[in-house]
Amino acid sequence: MDQLVIAGKTFSSRLIVGTGKYSSPAVMVRAHEASGADMVTVAVRRVNLSDRSKESLLDFIDTGKYFLLPNTAGCYTADEAVRTARLGREAGLSNWIKLEVIGDERTLFPDNTALIEATRTLVAEGFIVLPYTTDDPVVCRKLEDAGASAVMPLGAPIGSGLGIQNVNNLRIIREFSRVPMIVDAGVGTASDAALAMELGADAVLMNTAIAGAEDPVAMAEAMKLAVRAGRLAYLSGRIPRKMYATASSPVEGLVGR
Amino acid sequence: MKITLNGESFELAGPLTVSALLAQLSIDARRVAVEHNLAVLKRATFDSIEVRDGDEIEVVNFVGGG
Questions:
Q1: Disulfide check for A25: which of A60, A61, A239, A251 has CB 3.0–4.6 Å away?
Q2: Which residues in chain B are closer than 8 Å to A20, comparing Cβ atoms?
């Protein structure tokens, strides 16, 4: 069976979803269910000390069903990211981390130099590191050499919904990588996710595309189907692209000829 | 006794364990991670690590994110 394997752990779904930006916890729960995902990302933030009545995210996520992947979102230095990762490990149930070291506030593009350094540090501390990075094959190779268990190149800026910006780079990254490639960020609609999988991505990670849709539950189902369709198409060996036509029906035996 | 808790100044009657501090704040210890003077604490040490005057404590939990 064609299953996603990262760092020796098997996942039944190739769609990974976030827990942010939902209009309500109830919608989030239904969207997760519709997506078929078995891994979800979470952020690590200070407890709200002044408002203790607020329910916690973990009240709504069945950790028996979903594998939690803490992220280091909002970290702008390797030190901040490492610190957040260590806290995430203690708060959570595993040593897995989605590593983000942001280099620019407007684009949320990663600071790849700091990212590679943080990857090295965390791998040495026993973390399973999944770094969010750019669609740069050289950076992805460096991350892999630093011990990352997967590489997660962006399709487009986080939350932009622009879809895959550099199709050929992602194909190259997939070809060169010896670890799974997960397209993370920028997906807008189902065809973007299908395209990522057709390029050979091992999985797709998204948050805004689902949470921000008018009907997140329906979009989550669309994404589930898109990821499956794209993966199946990838495995099916597509036809080559040609400049001109090649008829599908026979040329001989036409009446009147 | 004064500490810095999640970036803000916080008054305490006296030294206490991390477990006791979390209980005082009505925080479920199983849902959080704690940093004590920049060191991330293992949950098993909450009962033994003591919070003293001038300490910097960070208490974090998981929230929604991408």
A1: A60
A2: 63-66
